[in-house]
Amino acid sequence: MLYNPVMKKFIAIFLSVIMFSLNASFGAEVLHGHAQKDDIYEQKLREELFTGKIENLERKDIINMTVSQVLDSNINVEGDEFFAEVTDEVVGDKGVIIPKGTIAHGRISESGEAKRLGRKAWIEMDFDYLITPDGREIPIEGKMTTKLHPVAETSKIIAQDVGYTVAGGAIGGFLALNWLGIESAVLSQGYTVAGGAAIGGAIGLGMALYRKGSDVLISPGDRIKVKINTTVPLPVYKETALKQHEMFYPGLDIKISDIRNEKDPFGQVNTITLTIMISNMSDKTFSGLDMALVNDYNSVFRPSVFGDTKIMFRQIHPGDKFAGRVSFAVDNIDRSFWLTLYDRRKGSTLTKISIDNAYRHISDKSKKHNAKVKKPKKNFTKEKDLFDEE
What are the strands, taking DSSP E only, across the chain? Predict the structure, then answer.
């Protein structure tokens, strides 16, 4: 009976049905459990990131950003997409609602080319959503334009054209004196000079009429101000959720008490000056030459010779304490940085202190100073290429 083929086939089908039922039931439980785990994970993530309070990103609020690519009025056209990055936290009464490093999506909505009479080219940009570092997509309505108000633009053109005409008149009068001599000017009771000035003025006016306005160029690193056109309710971040990763060495305590953004000797805002306090109870000896600022692209910037150099050549031995300032010239002052100390012999990293973390605790006076120094750019004029033809 056990070897009956019909019975064996029946048993095989019966077992297959049972196994299929068990698998189906098991699979349903797995999928159900997976969905529950996702909900729990998202809830836990929200609790870790946010305080539970809501704050509005208000209409007419301003967000400081920097573009991630070149925008050129000669190249870009309406409809071109681009991305920008938020350079300063947007803080409400209850806390931070848009963190630094948030990505903004933008599109060129309108543009105009440079024209005669000194009328400049212009670009108008619309922003439609933000992507936060925690992956949320936030719809917004934002706008930024390089176009001047018509009254301001006209007055600026008139002022420049008067400059051209006056300059032309002065040059014409000077040439009349130079070519015809002072005697001719006296004998003609000044008519030669006046005539030369009139001719020069006409030439200057012609230059003003012919003069073409400048083109627009917005480069990566240029700070722009984006105006918000709608009200958006947003959750408030916990301060712990915004903290950058740091690294510490046992016995070595470095605190940043002040952060100043400054201009270099050439007038560029590219210097970060830190006021630091060091307590070295470790087994290491180091100096300022072992320090650097490292940004989020892993670019390394050593102390600047244009700042306070006292710490650069001082040896800080085990048991020493030190307070002083150190400056770093960087390529983009709006990136995230870490004050990094290296082991001179091994070349390894001893400690990394986040500048962003420290910035939240510096004085309001220093923050106002930095905001004043880091004013968003207003003039996006493209420099003329000497080989360009009109």
Answer: 50-57, 62-67, 71-72, 81-86, 90-91, 96-98, 103-112, 122-131, 137-145, 217-218, 223-228, 232-237, 252-263, 269-280, 291-295, 300-301, 321-329, 337-342, 349-354
- Tell me the CATH number at 108: 2.40.128.260
Report which of residues 139 and 73 the model is more confident about.
139
Tell me the C-alpha distance between 158 and 145, whole Å.
Answer: 22
- Look at 377 and 285; give whichever has higher pLDDT: 285
CA 18 – CA 15 distance, rounded (Å): 5
Q: Are residues 85 and 127 in the same domain?
A: yes
Cα–Cα distance measured from residue 34 to residue 46, given in angstroms and rounded to the nearest whole number: 19
Domain count, the chain: 3
Using DSSP's 3-state secondary structure scheme, residue 319 falls into coil
Q: Note whether 77 and 223 are same-domain residues.
A: yes
Task: Answer yes or no: do 196 and 222 share one domain.
Answer: no
Confidence (pLDDT) at 13: 55
Encode pLDDT of 51-72 as tens digits. 999 999 988 888 999 988 888 8
**Do 163 and 262 fall into the same domain?**
no
Name the amino acid, one letter, at 172. Answer: G
pLDDT for 208 equals: 42
Structural domain of 275: 243-373
pTM of the predicted protein model: 0.69
DSSP 232: E
